[in-house]
Structure formats: structure tokens, C-alpha cells
Design a protein that fits this description.
Layout lengths: L1 E9 L3 H19 L2 E6 L4 H7 L5 H8 L3 E6 L14 H11 L4 E8 L11 H4 L3 E8 L9 E3 L4 E3 L5 H17 L3 E6 L5 H14 L6 E6 H10 L6 E4 L1 H14 L7 E5 L5 E5 L16 H13 L4 H16 L2 E2 L9 E2 L2 H11 L1
Parallel strand pairs: 1-2, 1-3, 3-12, 5-10, 8-9, 8-10, 13-14
Antiparallel strand pairs: 4-5, 4-11, 6-7, 11-12
Helix pairs in contact: 1-10, 1-12, 6-7, 8-9, 10-11, 11-12
The structure holds nicotinamide-adenine-dinucleotide.
């Protein structure tokens, strides 16, 4: 299969981990007989340095003309003092908006090899944890009307039926491919937008009879995530609730260097990136964990290219290398073998 992939390595550790992810991507192409055309673009601080804008038109156009985007991380102290319209983060928001990415998938997976890093008791979390948070990304309180004066301020959480329906459909479809359990999180006892959310979820349920739909209020969901995380498989929720719950879920797994994400639009197009930032403290030092970025490649193969077998092969290669005891500094524990970014990437590519 032929695919065009826009690659934005970005700032800080972005280039370190992207190099390893591309290495793995090339190995997938070789092993499975695909033709991946990899085209590099600038965004964030690197684009500010080169073009004085965090998102050059050529980058957005290049991404729009590709089948998927792979992004390292954007930002760093070098650009922190710039005015807000010139901050590297604007590049990220511009990409999400410009590419119409309304659906954010954040899997929180705790690998059995790393269970020692989980902050919850072993009997609570079990041997392995695998939760998928499906978060609405372009609506809700972050995008609603807002205003303030010296005495008051307001933000508005608003949703249309169409916005709710398209993200819930994603939730149902993902649940169909997993355990067929979908937990919809809202605050329908208080918020009108949540009441509409719940009504749409209940109405859609008839179209997905193979999926068991449950509802939780967001405060209860936050509590249940630490009380009994194993009850969850797929969680679908609106923008702000998803922002908070996905961070909570990710922390249960123990290490930020292990967690990928996908931002999708209605067709198969998506942008894939680790959830962590540019980690300027370890940039260029061969210390960054490339696994979140390589898992983002697996998500791209699965969600944008429909290459489930290839995605599983990448995930299995990561597990194999962890089984052999190789660890970057962030996930290192006694008696394991400490390796740098490059060796970890190389070993995963070899395991493929
Ligand atoms: N999507 C993005 O591009 C994105 C997301 C968050 C933050 N940022 C930007 O990144 C910069 C740094 O932000 P921050 O320090 O708050 O968060 P961060 O995620 O970059 O770093 C937090 C801590 O985690 C460590 N860390 C992060 N990723 C790691 C990895 N792969 N392997 C090993 N250790 C890792 C870092 O060394 C640091 O100690 C800021 O400029 C911020 O705006 C970008």
C-alpha cells in the first residue's frame, strides 16, 4: 500500500524520538511491502526560527495533502517570551483546527513489565490496564462564548447535536473493535449540554446493538478511575471532561514517555503524537523514551491506514524489547538494562 506521511519532528526531544519512529516506520514498510513516502515539514519553534511563524502555509498544505501526520513535540523556553500569536503552541492549535481534527484518542495502557511504576496498588490495577479515552476536541467550553470584566467572567459550554453525534459514533465504533463496552461520561444531572449529550447517546445506542452503553457523571468517573480502573474499556466524553480524565488515566500507567495519542477527523485522516511535551531538559542527550512516539506510529497504522496486523506487530516489538529488560531512564528500575533513545529505537526496529 502506498501512503504519504507528513512528519513534523518539532522542537526539544521531538527530533530525537521522531528519528526512531521513522526508523520503525521504514522497517514496517520493508517487512510488510508498503511504500511510505515520508515528507518533512516545520512547525512550532523550528518554524519560528526559519520563517517567523509557528505554522507556515506550506506545512498546513503539506499535511492536508498527506494521508496522515506524525508529530514529535512543539515548544520550549527559547520561544516562551514571544507574544501569544507567535508561540509554538499556536502551531499545534492551527494544525488541529486547520486539519479539522475533532476526535482525540488517548489510550492509557499500563504494560505488565512496567507495573511497578503505577501509583495505584497492584490489587487495584491488576497486571495490565488498557483504557481508551475518546475525547471531543473542537467544541465545548474551550470554544464557546466567553467574556470577563473586573467583577465577573464566564465561559460557555455549548454543543450541537451534530457535534455530539459524530464523536459518540467514534466511541461506538472503537468499542465495537474492542470489548464492546462504552462508558459515556457527562454531567447530565446539571448541565443542559450534557442532557443533550446523553439523549443523543441513548438514541444512537439502537444503531450499535452489539455495544453495551453505560453512563457516568464526570465526578463519579474521576473517582472510579482510581477506585477501580479495570471496569473501564472505552470512555467517550466532551472536550474538558476528556482533557481532565485522560490526564488522570494516563498517570495511572506510570510514565509519560509511554503514551501516544491520535487526533482524527471524520475520514481516516489523523495526526499522531506522544502526549508528552518537548522535554527541553533532556533534548539531544539520547535520554528521551521514544516508545510513546513509536506507539503513535502504531496508532497511525491502525486508525489511518487500516493496517491492524502492522500495528500489532509494532506493539509486539515494543513488548518484546521490554520483556528483554531494556529501559530508557524514565522507566528504568533496578536489574534492568539502561539504554538511550537510539538503542531503544534500534532494538524495537530489530524486533520487528
Ligand atoms: N503536544 C506538544 O507538542 C506539547 C505538549 C505539552 C507540552 N509542550 C511543550 O513542551 C515544553 C516542555 O513542557 P513540560 O516540561 O511541561 O512537559 P514535558 O512533557 O515536555 O516534560 C515533563 C517531564 O517529563 C519528561 N519527559 C517528557 N517526555 C519524555 C520522554 N519521552 N522520555 C523521558 N522523559 C520525558 C521531561 O524530561 C520532563 O522532566 C513546553 O514548551 C510546552 O509548552 C508541547
Amino acid at each position: 500500500m502506498k501512503k504519504r506521511i507528513a512528519v513534523i519532528s518539532g522542537d526539544g526531544i521531538g527530533p530525537d524520538i521522531t528519528f526512531e519512529a521513522v526508523k520503525v516506520l521504514k522497517r514496517v514498510a520493508e517487512r510488510f511491502g508498503h511504500d511510505f513516502e515520508i515528507v518533512e515539514y516545520l512547525a512550532g519553534g523550528a518554524a519560528l526560527d526559519a520563517y517567523n511563524t509557528p505554522l507556515p502555509d506550506s506545512t498546513l498544505k503539506g499535511c492536508q495533502d498527506s494521508d496522515a501526520v506524525l508529530l514529535g513535540s512543539l515548544g520550549g523556553p527559547k520561544w516562551d517570551t514571544l507574544p501569544s500569536h507567535l508561540r509554538p503552541e499556536k502551531g499545534l492549535l492551527g494544525l488541529r483546527g486547520g486539519l479539522g481534527l475533532f476526535c482525540n484518542l488517548r489510550p492509557a495502557i499500563m504494560y505488565k513489565q512496567l507495573s511497578g511504576a503505577c501509583p495505584l496498588k497492584a490489587e487495584v490495577v491488576g497486571e495490565q490496564l488498557d483504557i481508551m479515552v475518546v475525547r471531543e476536541l473542537t467544541g465545548g467550553i474551550y470554544f464557546g462564548a466567553r467574556g470577563s470584566d473586573e467583577e465577573s467572567a464566564y465561559d460557555t459550554m455549548s454543543y450541537t447535536r451534530a457535534e455530539i453525534e459524530r464523536i459518540l459514533r467514534k466511541g461506538f465504533e472503537i468499542a465495537q473493535k474492542r470489548s464492546r463496552r462504552l462508558c459515556s461520561v457527562d454531567k447530565a444531572n446539571i448541565l443542559s449540554s450534557s442532557q443533550l449529550w446523553r439523549a443523543v447517546a441513548n438514541a444512537l445506542c439502537a444503531e450499535y446493538p452489539d455495544v453495551e452503553l453505560t453512563h457516568l457523571y464526570v465526578d463519579n468517573a474521576a473517582m472510579q478511575l482510581v477506585r477501580n480502573p479495570r471496569q473501564f474499556d472505552v470512555i467517550v466524553t466532551e472536550n474538558m471532561f476528556g482533557d481532565i480524565l485522560s490526564d488522570e488515566a494516563s498517570q495511572i500507567t506510570g510514565s509519560i514517555g509511554m503514551l501516544p495519542s491520535a487526533s482524527l477527523r471524520e475520514d481516516s485522516f489523523g495526526m499522531y503524537e506522544p502526549i508528552h511535551g518537548s522535554a527541553p531538559d533532556i533534548a539531544g542527550k539520547d535520554l528521551a523514551n521514544p516508545i510513546a512516539m513509536i506507539l503513535s506510529v502504531a496508532m497511525m497504522l491502525r486508525h489511518s491506514f487500516g493496517m491492524e496486523g502492522e500495528a500489532q506487530a509494532v506493539e509486539a516489538a515494543i513488548e518484546a524489547v521490554l520483556d528483554q529488560g531494556y529501559r530508557t531512564v524514565d522507566i528504568y528500575s533496578e536489574s534492568m538494562i539502561k539504554v538511550g533513545t537510539k538503542e531503544m529505537g534500534q532494538r524495537i526496529a530489530q524486533a520487528l
